[in-house]
Amino acid sequence: MKIAVCGKGGCGKSTVTSLLAKALARRGKEILVIDSDESNYGLHRQLGMKLPRDFTDYFGGKQNVLNDMTLSKFTHQFFEKTWTIDDIPEDYYSLKDGVKLMSSGKIHQANEGCSCAMGTVMTQFIQNLRLTEDQFALMDMEAGIEHFKKIGELSESIQKPFYYVFNKVTKENQEMMYEAVWNSSRVAVSLGADPGIMGEGLMGKELSEKPDAIENLTEFLLSI
Q1: Is pLDDT of 164 > 80?
Q2: pLDDT confidence of 170, banded at 50, 70, 90?
Q3: Cα 201 to Cα 205: distance, rounded to the nearest angstrom
Q4: Among 3, 45, 1, which residue's Cα sits nearest to residue 140?
Q5: Strands 99-103 and 94-96
Q6: Quick one: pLDDT at residue 182?
Q7: In Å, what is the CA distance from 33 to each residue of 1, 25, 156, 192, 201?
Q8: Which residues pair with 139 in a beta bridge?
Q9: pTM
Q10: What is the average pLDDT across 110-122?
Q11: How far is CA 21 from CA 61, 68, 80, 116, 191, in A?
């Protein structure tokens, strides 16, 4: 199963991705986490891992990738065959407790230019990635569409299943969240505003909590 975790900046994409990856791994699943947010350096810390080398380096680096794309009018194919999780070169992932982490690339210095090279490589990688029944790929996406209803409409238009995960839920904001979504029957779980999780996130520590909502989300995904 390939799962894209999307949403606005600060909503908790990396937190949900990390907690879900750990929960699936505890159940014996093989997990690939794909860090697709070039400006956020928090995901690997929440997983307790070292940030792996940029995957664009495998294709010569960001500038070479961009040159190939430009020369081919953005039709260049970086993958000639399908890949599996085991095909990922050792230099381009970190591994801990059954979770493998790879990164599309990060902004390392000022004036690097657009991030389209990293996005193109990772998009093609995901399209060519083949998973077995016990393998999951979790994509922590860059901050994107903020509107609950628009996410639902776009997902349905391309016939892809989607579910909402409410995060930082309190008694005061829960009703508002349910009213804001496009289809409330698509709410998978509600994750409360957990001080422990928030504290570890702020300190850049590995997440150690095992919230019931994430356990429920894990079981739900396994049942699909």
Answers
A1: yes
A2: very high
A3: 6
A4: 3
A5: antiparallel
A6: 84
A7: 12, 11, 24, 23, 18
A8: 4, 34
A9: 0.91
A10: 83
A11: 28, 34, 29, 26, 15
